[in-house]
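for the record, two folds in this file. i put them one after another cuz i was lazy. first one right below, seq on top, structure tokens after. the second one comes after a little note so u can tell where it starts
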Amino acid sequence: MGFFEKIKAGLTKTRDALNSTLGGVFTGFSEINEDFYEELEESLILADLGVDTSVKAVERLRRAVREQHLKTTDEARTALKEILTQMLSVGDTRLNLSTKPSVILVIGVNGVGKTTTIGKLAKQMTDQGKKVLMVAGDTFRAAAADQLEIWAGRSGAAIVRQNEGADPASVVYDGIQSAKARDADVILIDTAGRLHNKTNLMNELNKISRIVNRELPQAAKEVLLVLDGTTGQNGLVQAKQFKEIAGVTAIALTKLDGTAKGGIVIAVADALQIPVKYIGVGEKADDLMAFNAKEFVEALF
């Protein structure tokens, strides 16, 4: 199954929901008028683009209709697809892995699929011939390191872990030394996700970042925020908090196959102006896919 087909299959619930709302807007109006715009805005909000992003998209569409002298709702639909693609295109969607080693610090609240995302990334990278080292920096949750250990076995990546309750920063330090000794290409660092205790989390992430910067000052670094697509606008609230705390550089949205509200991808990219770099549309390692804005929008429609 190709990339586009896989996204299309993974977004079935979202597309069906959009078709029942958006589809009715485009087929139910013979001309572009105020009622058309109002219903369109409502449909976009229902698809979880959020109020701000939906209003902005419809405003841009109004401008496009005026400037391009669009007459039919079919033409408006094509214009809307272009607008949404532009809203999603907010930077390079590829991870920066330009140095050896490169570091990917993976953050997000518990339960969003953070550890699984790290495992899938490790599998994809080792399949590409890269030497990957995973660091079990979530020492708060006992199962997190065990889960990573399983993925290490599946992917052939190395792993550094310590006992439950160990200082995450010391695990990261050990991981970096191990990566240097093994000549690793990529270091994937798991972190705890206790957002309700923001001060502790901020201190912990700052400490980890300082160690990475001190030990690997020249390394390419990504801070990858993992969000659960099924949480909708709540995910956007989380993303805003993590952006403040951790200087997020990339976003991975998981579980999009399980929700009718995949429009959250557009809301997150537009509101935060941080590129979505991966989306998850299934359980298998290759169901975590590098993001492509144009193909995503095509699959939605």
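(here's the note) second protein begins now
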Amino acid sequence: MIDQDKRQVIYCLHEEGMGIREISRRMSISANTVSAIIKQKGVMPNVVREDKISVNEQLLRELYNECSGWGQRIHEILTEEYKIELGYSTLTRMIRELELGNRKKQRCDHVPDQPGEEMQHDTTIYQLKIGDIRTRVVASIIYFRYSKIRYLKFYRSFNRFCMKCFVHDALMFWGYAAPVCIIDNTNLARLSGSGGKAVIVPEMEQFSRKYGFTFKCHEIKHANRKAGNERSFYTAETNFIPGRRFESMEDLNIQAMDWATVRMPVRPVSKTGLIPAAAFEYEQSYLKKVPPFVTPPYLVHDRGTDQYGYTSCDGNFYWVPGTSRHEVKVLQYSDRVKIYHKRKLLCEYDLPPDGVKNVKISPKGQPQSRYQPNNRKRPTADEEKKLRAVSTEIDAYLNFAIKLKTGKKRHGFIRRLYGLYQKLDGALFIKSVNRALKYRVSDIGTIERVAVLLMQAGIYEVVPAAFDAEYKNREAYHQGRFTDEVDLSKYDMPEDDDE
């Protein structure tokens, strides 16, 4: 294809009187091509493709609607019923040209990187190995468009409260906020509509007002409107996650904090060489400074105090000071809980490590109460796991017996069976349970009687407990020689005689 500029040169040389062969030699173009360009007067020809096969537009639209847009079926009908021989790629091109089924794509506006203009927030899901377990986590990133600084944190689940806590932590860390935060059309912040017509949830609108910014949704299918945030996730996938080991969620977030706020801000951006930390210092004069007195987001729980002095929150039990059983308000923050009674702060506790549930928590420096909370759950997963590991017979019996027990009965059955396992010799326990499985017995008392019968009938012989006969040679045994003699004078001991 000869470009337009070269065509103009060829035509001008011809007008000045130069021969076709001379032009062909100088321009390294064949003489036939030079003749064709001269005939076209140096103008690029407008070639319009004419399809050898023509399909009626109205017919194609009707078939598209009749076949619900499935191109393969449309192709079959055209070739088999209407005897129109055309390739499948030709058919799909015709469908695209008619814009059938696809809304016409809109162009995205290019937003220049202006200092203090906007920040972006988004989340994505990863499967990370935490400890030895593959775990689903939600990564949340807030990103300043101009300076390229970011804040990263991971959650097991992400709801509206988590979103508010994350935004609060990020903005309080950096100390500044952009006037606009670009988000996708998430229901965590959007009440109705989409894109520019989206209505923000009043709760989130009131929340953002405290920090001096507003939420703004991008248009549907225009995720590149927050391309900086999408690029941040790609950077996390290729730079932060590979080659790192995470022992817990706390360890994961500590490493993420160091990576996002310490390492990346001083690393130059690859294409422009911009250093985010230096750019953020320049951008601060254009941003809105976050007030230092903003109250962190929290959830309010109305709770009672049980007879042992505990109140529950998020699956754990917190001890309430005092002796009365009054109603309390529990304020749950992202990292702690506060317990109030009649607007008076009674106590404050740090939240336990991630994943820890069903535990009793007492004030620092005080021992835990020996009483259990009133509604504390007593799971039996550990006892069941130990029983199943004893032998295949016990595992088969549990599969049979647990089906007959539901709810509290199941946990009580497992506890009683585990207690019997601790009282009996291992071999006797296995024989008793195996016999119970044979006769479909699910009563613990019956299993105990089976064990007694086995011993009385002589089917099972009690094996004496094994002990180390060399215990007298141990160092601890010899050290006992230097202890004081036992004082028995306070006891009325009989005289030592021959009786």
